[in-house]
Design brief:
Order of helices and strands: EEEEEEEEEHHEEEHEE
Strand content: 25-35%
Helix content: 10-25%
Number of helices: 3
Strand order of the largest sheet: 5-4-8-9
Distance between the termini: 79 Å
Number of strands: 14
Length: 288
C-alpha cells in the first residue's frame, strides 16, 4: 500500500529535492498526541514528480492513524517534521471518504469493529452511487499507463503537465507519475476521469448522506444515535423529534443540486422534423 505525500514547509507546499533535501520517513501513531508509535517506514520516499513523494506504508490493521513525516528541506539543513498528516487506512478502496470519517460524523467512537466498518462502507458506496447517477460520470478516476512517450518539452517542471505528453484523452486527466526508460522516452501513468476524492463538495455530500442513512437505518450495526428526541409524554405514548434543519440552513444535509456544476451533459444533434405531406411541405412538388 502506498501513500503520496506533498511536503509542507513554512506554511506552503515545498519540494526539497532541488535544494538537495530529501523526504526520509513516515511514522504512524495511534492518537493525535503522537506518543505511541504503531509502525514506521523503512525506506525514504520516492520522488514521483516535483513536490510529490511516494511512501511504501507498513502493514497495519485498518483504522485511523496520525502520522509524522520527517524530511530535510535542503542540503545540510536540520530535519523537520510535518505532523499535520492523518491517514484512514487502508487506502485505495475506491471511495471518496472513509468509514472513520463517517463514524466521526455520526458520533461513533473509534476504533471501529469489523461489522461497523462493513456497514459504513456499504452506506458510503450507496451515497456514491447516488452521486454517480446524478453527475452522469464516475467519481473515481482510472489509472492508465502509456509507454514509450517522448515529451514535447524536456524541462523537468513540465513533465507533470498533461500537455507535455503526445496522448489524446477523452476525459480530464492528470499525470500521476512518470519513469524514464533510458532512451529519452518515458512510461507515464495518468489518472483519467473526475476525481471525487479531491473535490470537497463531493466528499462532504457522500460523508453526510452516508452518515445520515446509517443513523436512520433500523438495527444499525454502526450503533448510531438515531433521530434526536425532543420530548416524550408522561405515559411514554407520544414522542417528538427535533426537526431536521431546512435546506440551506446550517447543519442541513447538502443537496445533490450542490454538485450541479460537475454534471456531465450529453449533447444530441437536433433531429430534423418529419416533412409534412403534400401540399403543405415546401420541399416536395406535386406528383406528375
Amino acid at each position: 500500500m502506498t501513500y503520496d505525500y506533498e511536503p509542507m514547509y513554512a506554511g506552503a507546499y515545498y519540494d526539497p529535492a532541488p535544494a538537495g533535501g530529501q523526504v526520509t520517513s513516515l511514522s504512524l501513531y495511534d492518537g493525535p498526541d503522537r506518543t505511541t508509535l504503531v509502525a514506521a517506514t523503512t525506506e525514504p520516499a520516492i520522488r514521483l514528480r516535483p513536490g510529490v513523494y511516494r511512501f511504501e506504508l507498513p502493514d497495519v490493521p485498518p483504522g485511523r492513524y496520525w502520522a509524522s513525516v520527517a524530511f530535510i528541506p535542503s542540503e545540510g539543513a536540520a530535519p523537520v517534521r510535518d505532523q499535520a498528516v492523518r491517514l484512514d487506512l487502508p487506502l485505495g478502496l475506491g471511495t471518496v471518504t472513509s468509514p472513520e470519517a463517517v463514524a466521526e460524523h455520526i458520533g461513533i467512537p473509534l476504533p471501529l469493529t469489523a461489522e461497523q466498518r462493513d456497514a459504513l462502507l456499504t452506506a458510503i458506496r450507496n451515497a456514491q452511487a447516488d452521486v454517480v447517477g446524478y453527475l452522469g460520470q464516475p467519481i473515481v478516476p482510472t489509472l492508465v499507463t502509456h509507454t514509450g512517450l517522448t515529451p514535447r518539452w524536456q524541462r523537468e517542471e513540465d513533465l507533470d503537465d498533461v500537455e507535455t505528453w503526445p496522448v489524446e484523452m477523452d476525459d480530464q486527466a492528470e499525470v500521476s507519475s512518470y519513469r524514464p526508460r533510458g532512451d529519452g522516452t518515458y512510461d507515464v501513468d495518468f489518472r483519467v476521469g473526475f476525481d471525487g476524492a479531491a473535490n470537497t463538495a463531493v466528499v462532504r455530500y457522500v460523508t453526510a448522506h452516508a452518515a445520515e442513512s446509517e443513523r436512520q437505518r433500523p438495527g444499525s450495526a454502526a450503533g448510531g444515535e438515531g433521530r434526536r428526541v425532543s420530548s416524550v409524554s408522561a405515559e411514554g405514548q407520544a414522542i417528538s423529534y427535533e426537526p431536521a434543519p431546512a435546506a440551506g440552513q446550517a447543519g442541513a444535509l447538502p443537496a445533490l443540486t450542490s454538485l450541479a456544476r460537475w454534471r456531465r451533459l450529453l449533447y444530441q444533434p437536433v433531429q430534423n422534423p418529419a416533412r409534412a405531406p403534400w401540399p403543405y411541405s415546401p420541399g416536395r412538388g406535386r406528383g406528375r
